[in-house]
Design a protein that fits this description.
Number of domains: 1
Radius of gyration: 13 Å
Largest sheet: 4 strands, antiparallel
Strand order of the largest sheet: 2-3-1-5
Strand content: 35-45%
Order of helices and strands: EHEEEHHEEE
Number of helices: 3
CATH class: Alpha Beta
Structural class: alpha+beta
Number of strands: 7
CATH topology: Phenol Hydroxylase P2 Protein
CATH architecture: Alpha-Beta Complex
Length: 96
């Protein structure tokens, strides 16, 4: 018998700056089991299965309107697939 496998990790590396810190707080609120790792100039976020970025959560922490396309400005790299990219939500997950 083999041991059960855990869900495949997804993640994103963001530039380390003030706006990204608000993004990290929002993602942490919306993504259970999120792991955050701070490195020089970069923040790596990983989660089993899926990572969620909700527009309302980001706006609450930034204190201003935020469009999901702004997420592209913070991304250094990612692993997983953009399973959903709508006006109000982004989901990084593996589709298969």
């Amino acid at each position: 018998m083999s041991a059960p496998t855990s869900e495949r990790q997804v993640g994103v590396d963001l530039q380390e700056n003030e706006e990204s810190r608000a993004l990290v707080e929002a993602i942490e609120a919306d993504t259970p089991d999120l792991t955050i790792r701070h490195m020089p100039g970069m923040i790596r976020l990983t989660a089993p299965g899926r990572l969620v970025i909700n527009q309302a959560s980001v706006e609450q922490r930034l204190g201003r309107e935020w469009e999901t396309h702004e997420f592209q400005l913070a991304i250094i790299s990612y692993f997983g697939e953009f399973a959903e990219w709508e006006d109000d939500r982004i989901v990084i997950a593996w589709k298969h």
